[in-house]
Amino acid sequence: MDTPILVAVISAAASLTVAAITFFLTKQKEREAEWRKQKLEHYREFLDALSGTVGSDSTPEAQRRWARAANTIGLVASQKVLLSLWKFQDSIAKSNPHASIADHDRTLNQLMLAIRADLRVTPADEPEHFSFRLWCSGTNG
To answer: What is the DSSP letter of 97?
Structure first.
């Protein structure tokens, strides 16, 4: 085979290969971005529902909404988030004879950090003793 023809064939094959790889990687990034967007929306709904159960804001409907949101994030959450969620639920359960504010705060913090890690929020952004709080209307702090 002539050298110029061989060079042309190799160049064309390399161009096609690079285009195919670029297309594949772009599609993969698009799928990852869509998946992350879905997770964020589920977590947003979960935290919004959880906020509705705090203090005087809590109603039976708010409790049902939170239960639905907690069950639904099982579709997208990592195992670490789910384990943290279950620990949090156990700590706030009415059937927990050892319920305490300290345990509530600790397990809520673990849950929030797990959610942030699942969303790839850089843990280095968080102070060493960072604590999450939930606020509600009708309370002073």
So the answer is: T
